[in-house]
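P.,

For your records, the input lines for the assembly:
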Amino acid sequence: MGGHVRNTIEFVLNGQPRRLSAFDPTLTVLRHLRESERLVGTKEGCAEGDCGACTAVVAELDGEGLSYRAVNTCIQFLATLDGKALITVEQLRGDDRELHPVQQALVDAHGSQCGFCTPGFVMSLFAGVQNAVAPKRQDIDDLLAGNLCRCTGYTPIINAATKVLEPAAENAFRARETHIMGLLSQLPANDSIKLENEGRTFIAPATLQELSETLIEYPQATLLAGGTDVGLFVTKKHIKPDVLVYIGKIQALSEIAPCDEGVRIGAGATLDRAWPALVALYPAMNEILRRFGAVQVRNAGTVGGNIANGSPIGDMPPALIAAGATLRLRRGDQTRDLPLEEFFLAYGKQDRLRSEFVESVLVPRPARDSLLKVYKVSKRLDQDISAVCGAFNLTFEPARGGPVVKDARICFGGMAGTPLRADVCETFLRNKPWNEATASAAQEVLRGCYEPMSDWRASARYRNQVAGNLLMKYFLETATQRPINLAGRGERVPYEA
Amino acid sequence: MKLDDAGVAPRVHASWAHDSSAKQVCGEAIYIDDLPEPEGTLQVYVAQSPHPHARIRRIDASKILAERGVVAVLTAADVPGEHDISCIRAGDEPVFARDLVEYAGQAVFAVAAPTIDIARSAARKVIVDYEPLEPILTIAQAMQKRSFVLPPRVVRRGDPEKALASAPQRLQGSITTGGQDHFYLEGQISLAIPKEDGDVLIYCSTQNPSEIQHICARVLAVPDAAVAVEVRRMGGGFGGKETQATQFAAIAALAATKTGRASKVRLDRDDDMRMTGKRHAFEIDYDVGFDDSGRILGVKFVQKEDVTPRAADRPNGSGRDSCPGPRDTWNPLNGGSLCPGHGL
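Structure tokens returned:
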């Protein structure tokens, strides 16, 4: 690597600078907090980023102020905190031990019972206050979707949230922001990191060039972005990668760049940051992003990671493939572009060469007279993995007697070992009048396109039934211009209490 | 709570914050894993059978005892006292499987080491020679083999056969309910600290500290007075820490007394969900007779419950006994069978 390489990480923990070296690169933030710092307010509930008991807030310099992101510390690696500030539940009280308004609101509303999930809720609500989330029921539900409570019941917690999210009164924490910003501005920036400990290596290149070189030197490296998947290798499979290459310090990879063709999303851009850009092109992607994990997952996980890990049940690939996205891969100085669907070769196998990495994905503008819809079917509405995720993008041509299908792109997740287009159904639909008869016939063709498996999330029969049903839902929604919600809230509509 | 000068709460029907709430919202409420560990505390990994039903031919832990940090390996042979943690003393709940494995996830041995990572990776190197046996995995299989953990029991009132036979309308069918995990947010955890004269202090996340004391004393072959159990609070229990915490308290206590070092058993979520499980699946056949207005005249239930092979696993008492319904005129007949599966 060209520039200066550090063998330490530096960050701010609860308003105090920290410099660390020689630790296991797979050490999670949560274990470090509990075992080394003895900050035991942050709890482990599931160790897989599902329950939110371990939620803490990462603050970063952002223009004139700080940005705040709630994250699951159980699956975030400590080394990725470099250059950032971490705020845990222990830092919210005022200097006089006065409770933060979020804490006081939970006490007042009887929002804790066993109390084990409570610090996580406190931190999610704290992030909500810092980010000025509106005290509307829908927004509160989304803010807290990543926090699981088993005994209190959500009503008191939502009551507390409603109260505390009202345009906030001054609280002691605000006075600490300047202090945190001061410390953050003194941390080294723009240099790369290489930590080695007991045979394991963590490398955080600072530039694209350095990343390319690093991967040529370490072709066996595990690429790390948000850690919402790689973190589970460690906490669930108990597998520790020998070499972790973290892409989070590379500015160029986190860019979200509008262009003539549409928008180019860097592989390191988080789902939360990519959300508005995607929705600007395809409003229907809003629902899939709203239900993508939950806040803590979207704040860490990336669009690129959701593609690169090759999961057949990632929620971004079906939508992006239906939209006609193009993937850009890089190896050394060479880049190549390929239609996103061609990246997925088979279960667990992607078209990625040795030392090659996902650089960005280009999401094109919608074609004229096209309509993309994407539907996620999961056991729980929030914070769940899809049983079936179907994306439909049809282009219509006006004709006498009603529109005719000019082009069709249909892609499903959860129906095969990869995200898979329904080629035969797409061909069947082209040049057909877009009416109920066509949609009905296409349902059967669609069901013939897949041989899904049965697993804990759904049976093969259920998946096939649902896939066809979603096509009919798409037809009805395009025909009536109205969303059809059979369960839950479905689309993001203003909630009237 | 603010008390008046006489030490009395000023009014009733008032809403008070509970006494831990301020600590909980600050992360200052102490759960067992938050306690400072005594110096040299060992972390104990509980290794489980991958087989639902198997005979254990041999356990060979000789290789790992030389591993860096491994302090002790515990098996059934390390239990000095009664090898049973059944809350009804049924003799069918060993701390560690002896020669027979009866469910996937059953504890077979445990490794104590300074860190859980060392303990877990060492446990992978222990050789357990299993002879897999044909498991019973479904209620249907258990019914076919007449495999019941306790004899079927019948609750009867009136003359249900006659009421059913003469009812103008009749419906028969079957419903199934899946099993559930209690999913307390704080997993099972016990920290055992050895004291003088073989005494042990166990910090345990349990809904039943007295039972833990009695059973651990029996397992350790010491008087009840030698075992103290302390629980300040739990991160949820929901019934899942009434009887199920005992096994992990016992393992921690065994490790502590064997090594003379404080020993902690803290299950991660996956191990917890695999090893415990008490809200069982039911299959209930029903036969109901009623008149044209819908009034029930007679009913017959056959309740089959999918349990692990232990007699204390018998919450079907509540399922069965609450079913007869509010009216004598129902003429209920209620048959319950505990069908031990070798659950996965």
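Two observations worth noting. Residues 47 and 157 of chain A are 23 Å apart (CA to CA). Chain A touches chain B at residues 34, 38-48, 51, 53, 88-90, 92-93, 99, 102-104, 106-108, 110-119, 122, 148-151, 235-236, 238 (CB under 8 Å).

Regards
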